[in-house]
Amino acid sequence: MVILRRPILAGGIGLTLALWLWQSFDRSLGQISELGIFSAIALGVCIWLFQQSKAKKAQLIDNSPPNREKVEKAIYSAQNVVNQLQIEADKHELLPQIQAKVTQLNEQLERQNINVAIAGGKGVGKTTLIQVLSANWENTSKHTVSLVETAALFNQIVKDEAEIDPWQQAIAADLVLFVTDSDLKYSEWQVLQKLAEVEQRALLIFNKQDRYLPEERAIVLHSLQQTAKDVVAIAACPNPVKVRQHQVDGTVSERLDTPAPEIANLTSGLQQILANEGQQLIWATTIRNAGIIKAEAKTVINAVRRDRATPIIEQYQWIAAAAAFANPVPALDLLATAAINAQLVVELGNIYQQKFSLQQAQTVAGNMGSLMLKLGLVELSTKAIATVLKSNVVTYVAGGALQGVSAAYLTRVAALSLVEYFQSQEVTINTESGLNLDKLGQTLQKVFQQNQQVAFLQTFVQQGVSRILPTSGGEAEVSAS
User: Fold this and answer.
1) Packing angle of the helix pair 377-390, 437-450 (nearest 10 deg)
2) What angle do CA 386, 391, 394 make, to 5 degrees?
3) DSSP labels for 122-182?
4) With 0-12 CB in 10 A as exposed, 13-18 as middle and 19+ as buried, what is 199?
């Protein structure tokens, strides 16, 4: 009854059955010739479907500074995803918390306080720098400034729920002063790269420069400038300097004097940033926070949708197995599987708010099949499943079992790949933009590798054989290996 309610699926399998019956009736054409004809037809259909996909539209990246319009657009985008979450899972436990965060975004736009995070490794002088700035810097801008020290951002593990994640603390700030006391270590370089990726404004602070000889200091500073756009050399707490003083009586006294902090370059730089970029820093932070909230809501939506998609995928993979097992002509399996996958695309599209027409679903299914062939996944999966089957006691119809389990496996991989692809897109997708075949191919390879573990294949094969080769007792004629 499930099949009859799905016209694409019923039509495809019906066509397969009709062609098989016709082949059985007219064997005089010759098996080899006929298979060649059907193979050519199947290949032609795949090529035609592949050509129907529309080229990916180029997306222009906007690198202009943040402004009010961009902020409002980011908030609106986040609000849309949260609204979609409410539509699809209005009882979800995280929904109230996410909704509250969206409400707070508009309040951030009106604030005048600039949050500055002091970050870096251990022992580089973060605490001292905060103390020196607080005592020696007179802020003349219209914005107030809050200085907050983060824990080290390297290999940090939050063990207590009450403990603040230093990375989240850094990207939630408007400006990051990243402190180092030497040339960058690889872990430090990685942090700076991550800050740049999320478009977090940062200054690289070369502290304790007074501890280097002039030549060494110049080398380190030059190296840092090759890595970061804005580098400021300071000495927040210079080493004491030995001072000799000649007395009137001819004796010489010595004492240690502590020089004043060398932070003039930093304070002047901060004043300039606050004056020229203060409002943009607040806007940029709000845009980042909107993106974080949007991603959080999207993660919840994807989990809800995946829970709904899983039983559908499992249902269709076994339909594909039964169709392939019942069909003795390999070339015709492609027609049945394409019909099954097209109907599967329609149902997954409904879950992921992607409304596919019949033609679009056929195109997507054709693209998936073409990509699998080009990537060699069909051959690899068949060999892997055949290896598992050989380790079990199977009846004389093992060839049909191989076809059936392989069809189920490929249907599953295709469906999971489509799910992964949808999850990486916007919550609602424009069907007119077509599929990004390069990205879809990468997703296929990734999902295929994830489903190639021996333990998974053994379990999957046993499940497949038990469905297409049931014994009188309801169990498959296989033995666990």
Assistant:
1) 10
2) 80
3) TTSSHHHHHHHHHHH----SSSEEEEEEPPP-SS----STTSPPHHHHHHHSSEEEEEESS
4) middle
The token duo for 29 is: 């054409």
Distance, in Å, from the CA atom of 88 to the CA atom of 94, rounded to the nearest integer, reads 13
* pLDDT of the residue at 375: 82
- Encoded amino acid at 54, one letter: K
* Confidence (pLDDT) at 25: 40
Q: Are 465 and 478 in contact (CB under 8 A)?
A: yes
As a whole number of angstroms, the distance between CA 385 and CA 376 comes to 14
- Collapsing DSSP states into helix, strand and coil, what is residue 245? strand
Structure tokens at 61: 């990246």
Strands 175-180 and 231-233: unpaired
166 contacts 156 by C-beta, under 8 angstroms: yes
Q: What is residue 20's predicted lDDT score, i.e. its pLDDT?
A: 39
User: Which H/E stretch holds residue 120?
Assistant: strand 113-120
Q: Report d(CA 364, CA 434) in Å as an integer.
A: 9
The DSSP bridge pattern shows strands 113-120 and 175-180 to be parallel
Tokens encoding 473: 């007792």
Distance CA 291, CA 70 (A): 12
For 371-401, the pLDDT digits (tens) are 888 888 888 888 888 887 776 655 434 567 8
Tell me the per-residue pLDDT of 177-207, one tens digit each, with 9 for 90 and over: 999 999 999 989 999 999 999 899 999 999 9
pTM of the complete model: 0.73
pLDDT per residue as tens digits for the range 280-334: 999 999 999 999 999 999 999 999 999 999 999 999 999 888 888 877 555 545 5
Alpha-carbon span 374 to 372, nearest angstrom: 6
Instruction: Tell me the two tokens of residue 434.
Output: 């077509």
Burial 379-409 (b: 16+ CB within 10 A, else e): eebbebbbebbeebebeeebebbbbbbbbbb
Write the CB contacts of 4 (distance below 8 Å, at least 6 apart in sequence): 10
Q: Which residue has the tokens 């926070």?
A: 289
Alpha carbons 455 and 461: distance in angstroms, whole number:
10
